[in-house]
Amino acid sequence: MSVAPRSAEDVKELFESLRDRINDFEARLDAFSNWLENTDDRVSELEDENDELRARLDALESRMNVLEDDSSSKEGKIQQIVAGAENNRTGDQSAVVMNAAKIVTVTGVSRRYAYDLIEDLPKQHHWILTRSEARERQFGSIEIDDGKQTKAIVIDFEALHSDPEAVNKFTTSSEGGGR
Q: Looking at the predicted structure, is the pLDDT value of residue 51 above 80?
């Protein structure tokens, strides 16, 4: 408990002490206000950065969904098979044989689904041939033995490249660049 001042000098000292405390308090209050203002500014900046990152993440997720949907569709599988055949092509070879094992490797599908593709694709695309059809066309440098027990398809690159729709659909990557 404080004692009441006894003299004018004591009152003056008490007044000076209170004024110093008030000035100190005002300085601390100003510092706190500045800190709070800087913190609010930084929080706003972080919220803006967070919104930008969230938008970028959403865009990336959308792109990933498109790529996943594309590669899991039948057309995506055909694109992978054509890319695999192109990778196995030597020089200006006009056709490449893709058996079930190669199709499994380039697409990641099951062996059973690879056999289904071998059965279905020649019926759907004129540039995907059975071994017998390919042998009849005589591709020269490629060995196409329709008597082999392994099922396979033959990608006819000349026929593929003569079909603009097929070229755009199956030989151009989804990012816009060619293979």
A: yes
